Amino acid sequence: MEDRTAATIARPRILRLNAGDNVAVALQPIPAGCALPELGITARQEIPQGHKIALRPIPEGSPILKFDVVIGYAGTDLQAGDWLHSHNIRFDAVEKDYAFARDYRPTRILPPDRRAVFQGIRRANGRVGTRNYIGLFVTVNCSATVARKIANHFDEERLQDWPHVDGVIPFIHESGCGMEMTGEPMDLLRRTLAGYVRHPNMAGAVVVSLGCERNDLMQFFRDHSLAEGKMLRSITMQHVGGTARAIAEGKEAVHQMLDRANEVRREPCSAEHITIGMQCGGSDGLSGLTANPALGAAADILIRNGGTAILSETPEIFGVEQLLTRRARSEEVGRKLVDRMDWWLDHTRGRDTQINGNVSPGNNAGGLANVLEKSLGGAKKGGTTGLMQVYRYAEPVDEKGLVFMDTPGFDPVSATGQIAGGANLICFTTGRGSCFGSYPSPTIKLASNSAMFARMEEDMDVNCGRIADGTSTVEEMGEEIFRTILDIASGRQSKSEALGVGEDEFAPWPIGVTG
To answer: E strand or H helix at 64, and its extent?
Structure first.
């Protein structure tokens, strides 16, 4: 009779990421007692998928190395075959060598006639969109209901006469009053709103105000050189006579925009006009091995085609920011990133936040011991090209190539900043199964493991778990993601679009809001 003990069951796949590592990652669950002769060890405890196993004895206080980068320190004496996780990996400060611009190499950009092409929407100002929306915006939450009722009036049935308009979307936020009238909080809110109003995926916009809020409508327009016209209108509730009249005027304003918005036609455009915002959420231990590096490979391809990729989520690169400063095109660019990191460290000092070591319960269950390990995987989204510029939240991105935008790690807030900066697509990696979506820029979901992809296929666009399964390489998945980017930029719906997800995910960063 065949012996079916744990030690002789078909061996699970396990991956050592660098010759200098003292841990390996389980690509499949490893039962306790399972022999791993290729590594010369036996699992001393059960190792869940995405979690780590010690490859050799590690004395207490010694660094834990993954990708030959320190992700923490042994909290006790560890034996070969031990399960390593937050219970025995100590989070502590890591010495960093920023080595500004030391590893920067200019990227070879393909000549214009060899660049990939997608079917885009050319705007009069020369920018190119991937979608064609009319937006309802509010200066303050007090006008949110009016904006939402105007937008909801233009449902799928009413828009049938304008087939080239993708929708009428409300962009509602929770601030605009009870805050400073000047300074960074107001500047940040206004530049976020202005970035959306001017976005190449927006054919027209109506801005609704109450009339007495601190985010004054006229001052907002002056600060960002916005001028009313046929495709940009404003409505002040207190001036027009209240809620019902504001809704009626808003409906009429949108009606007047629809014919012109419907005149657009898609045409061949160079991939240099694609800007992706890169996000990861609900990460697991495989995210940094499959979906994130695959997205990094796709970003490299896009950049070689003249496009732009925005890396963000500043607290989630903490501990590995030196990997980016070394690739910065100049010391000035590298120091901008360090300055933003220093701001975060000061802002969160003494608080129970991710940058101080604690990842979310879902991240932890998926195999990430602390923010250092999460950051190491998250930075893989940035690919291999030079870091060309660093931007503050929602600033217009005017540099090609890989850039960094300072944002929180919370996905809706981070993606909102990227879209305000000009991202006309969002690429979102997930291991636990995030259901995020966004307007006016569609979100492409990249699953890190095949089990989750199969379970949540209605939400996931690409299964990067094939890398862990051994049926695809990072490079092959990067090519597939790039093709998906071109297809969805050309008008094919992403899974989140088909589900109608994204209207409520508009979330400007409420930094510094006070009563």
So the answer is: strand 63-66
Return all residues near 242 (Cβ < 8 A) that are at least 6 apart: none
Q: Where are the alpha helices (DSSP H) in 456-499?
A: 466-469, 474-489, 495-498
User: Are 36 and 14 contacting, i.e. CB atoms less than 8 angstroms apart?
Assistant: yes
pLDDT, position 6: 38
Nearest to 100 by CA among 321, 330, 340, 387: 330
Contact, 165 vs 254, CB < 8 A?
A: no
Cis peptide before 440 (omega within 30 of 0): yes
352: enclosing H helix or E strand: none
Phi and psi angles of residue 443, each rounded to the nearest 5 degrees, phi first? -100, 135
Q: Which parts of 180-274 are beta strand (E)?
A: 202-209, 232-236, 267-270
- Minimal CA–CA distance to 376: which of 94, 6, 19, 12? 94
Which DSSP string corresponds to 86-140?
Answer: TTTEE---------TTTT-----PPPGGGS-EEEEEE-TTS-EES--EEEEEESS
Region 486-498 average pLDDT: 98
Counting Cβ atoms within 10 Å, is residue 163 exposed (0-12), middle (13-18) or buried (19+)? exposed
Please count the residues of the chain.
515
Amino acid at 93: A
d(C-alpha 423, C-alpha 310), whole Å: 8
Proportion of the chain above pLDDT 90, given as a percent: 82
Count the helices and strands in the chain (H runs, E runs): 15, 23
Going by C-beta distance under 8 Å and a sequence separation of 6 or more, which residues neighbour residue 56? 22, 80
pTM flag (> 0.85): yes
Q: Which of 65-79, 124-138, 436-450 has the lowest mean pLDDT?
A: 65-79
d(CA 35, CA 168): 59
The residue among 426, 403, 430 whose CA lies nearest residue 291 is 430
Give the 3-state secondary structure of residue 388: strand
User: Considering Cα of 426, then 172, then 497, then 256, what sign does the dihedral take?
Assistant: negative
